[in-house]
Amino acid sequence: MKGLKIFALILILLFTVISGWIYMSWMGMERTFLNHSYYRDVVSSERIFPDMIDTVLHNVYFSEGCPCCAGNDEDMQLPPYMQKEALEEFNIITNAFHAAFPEEWLEEQYLLVVDDVLALVRGEQESVTVTIDLQDRKERFRDEIINQMEKHLSDEETGNIEATREELESLAGVLSEEMDLPEQIIVADITEHVLNPQAEKAIHNTQIFRQYFLLFYFAFVLFIALNFLLAGISGGLKWFGAAALIAGSTFLGGIYLFRIMVFEPLVTNFGLWIPIEPAVISSMSTQTLHVMSVIPLVFFAFGLVSLVAGIVVAKKQKAGTR
After folding, report:
1. pLDDT at 156
2. How far is CA 127 from CA 33, 132, 134, 207, in A?
3. CA pair distance 244, 6, nearest whole angstrom
4. pTM for the structure as a whole
5. E strand or H helix that includes residue 185
């Protein structure tokens, strides 16, 4: 009979640990990737958009938009003066783009899209609805190109380069057309290519999981009750405390091992695929792990308290029987 009780307690411990892992994984998702505040904190603490825009513009310009070269600026087989002209033109476009699309505006649009997508994932709406109007920004981009060219011409050391306003406007029109910016970005058109049947199924499963997530709390109450029933108050506290300690410590260790052994090597080896500096990605992962580590730390603390409480109760019970 005693062996059967121990087997049942071990089984309950395993179920508690596995349930704890699932619970902590989901709570980590809710506090990070399914939380608006997480995305807001990321963009407010890291220089993401300026570096990303510079990388994207560089790739677009030197692979497609540059009127006098092919490949990137390191591979150009051109006379030095033509390379210099291409780089000067690229700098004009980059500075104009940053002026027309400032970081604050990019962050605002980004968070609007995030809210829209999160509402879809949570089941609060059936599709994404955000449309980003770029018409005014395109006009401003063209004006900023003119301003940057005027500034560039005024800074020329020779002082012999002159251009009329009409010539600058014509050239600005050509440069802005090279970037091929749309009048608006309909986010639904983008997500239409991303939301394949597998992604839609994952979103549906996420919504179902959120609806029944409260069952985990009932499960933990049931596990505690069964521990008390099989091992008494002191033993039940010890068994459940041990389960919470194991779940919290292994989950916490697992996410940090994942970062060291999987995530960081991926960033190092494949960072060129992502238009964000590896240092920024590493910092973002640190921030994400910091948020996700709160729940397992709470689990660990709760387990430690339960275990100590079980030991204290056992000592009192033993002292009372003397």
Report:
1. 52
2. 18, 16, 22, 14
3. 18
4. 0.81
5. strand 184-186
The tens digit of pLDDT for each residue in 253-280 reads 999 898 888 777 766 665 545 666 777 7
Q: Are 252 and 300 in contact (CB under 8 A)?
A: yes
Q: Is 259 helix (H, G, I), strand (E, B) or coil?
A: helix
Residue 186 φ then ψ, to 5°: -95, 110
Residue 188 φ/ψ region, left for φ over 0, alpha for ψ in the -120 to 50 degree band, beta for the rest: alpha
Q: Are 216 and 23 in contact (CB under 8 A)?
A: yes
User: Nearest-CA neighbor of 34 among 23, 44, 26, 42?
Assistant: 26
184 bridge partner residues: 133
Six-digit token pair at 279? 């240092």
Report how far apart, in Å, the C-alpha atoms of 102 and of each of 49, 60, 107, 141, 151 are: 9, 19, 9, 11, 19
Tokens matching residue 67:
């009127």
What is the spatial distance between Cα 204 and Cα 199, in angstroms, rounded to a whole number?
9
Say how far apart CA 186 and CA 196 lie, in whole Å.
18
Q: Provide the pLDDT for residue 68.
A: 46
> What is the rounded distance in angstroms from the CA atom of residue 177 to the CA atom of residue 147?
17
Cα 155 to Cα 89, 151, 159, 161, 162, distances in angstroms: 14, 6, 8, 10, 12
Q: How far apart are CA 12 and CA 41, in angstroms?
A: 39
* Residues making up the chain, counted from first to last: 322
